[in-house]
Amino acid sequence: MASLSSGLLEQSVDTDELSELLDRAYEYEDCTALLQVQQRLAEIHARSFEIPASLPRTDFNALRADLHCALQIEERMLSYEDRFIDLGACPSTTGGGLEFVRSLKSVVREHPANRHPFYIDFLPDSADIAYYLAQESALDPGSTTSSP
C-alpha cells in the first residue's frame, strides 16, 4: 500500500484514499469531501510553504510526500474548475500578444468579481494594501509579489 504524509496529523494517508476523496470532492461535488481536501491542502501549505519563525531541519521525505499530495489535489481542483470555463468567452490569441492582453483585460474588467465590495469599498478607504500584498505573497509560494 502506497502512502503519503498527511501533514499535521502525523499519519500516513493511503494514496487510494486520497484518490477516492478527490473523486468525491470533484466528480460527485460532495461538500464534506471538498472541505476535507481544502483542509489537507491548507495543512500542507502551512507546514511546507509558510515562512516559519525559526528554520527547523527539513524532513525531505515528508516534504516530497506533501508536494506529491498537493500536486494531486491541485491538479484535480484545476481540472474541475476547467469544466466551467466558457472557451467562447476566452480572448483570442490570433491577433498577437498585444491584442490578447487587451482582450484579456476587457474580460477581467467585465467580470463581476472586478466590482466586488472588497475592492471598491473596503480596500481603497480602510485597508493597508501593503499588508494584504505581504499576506498574499507569504501564502502563495508561486507569487512574484515582494512583501514591503
Short description:
With 148 residues, this protein is mainly alpha-helical. The chain is 59% helix and 4% strand. Residues 1-12 and 143-148 have low confidence and may be disordered.
Characterise this structure.
- The protein is built from six helices and two strands, in the order E-E-H-H-H-H-H-H.
- The protein has helices spanning 15-26, 31-48, 60-82, 97-110, 117-126, 129-139; strands at residues 3-5, 12-14.
- It has a two-stranded antiparallel sheet with strand order 1-2.
- Helix 1 packs parallel to helix 3 (60-82) and helix 2 crosses helix 3.
List SSEs in N-to-C order: EEHHHHHH
Which structural class fits the helix and strand makeup? mainly alpha
Give the DSSP E fraction (strand runs of 2 or more residues). under 5%
Low-pLDDT runs:
1-12, 143-148
Task: Please supply descriptive tags for the structure shown above.
148 residues, mainly alpha, 6 helices, 59% helix, extended, disordered N terminus, disordered C terminus
List the helices and strands and how they pair.
Blueprint: E1 3-5, E2 12-14, H1 15-26, H2 31-48, H3 60-82, H4 97-110, H5 117-126, H6 129-139
Antiparallel strand pairs: 1-2
Helix pairs in contact: 1-2, 1-3, 2-3
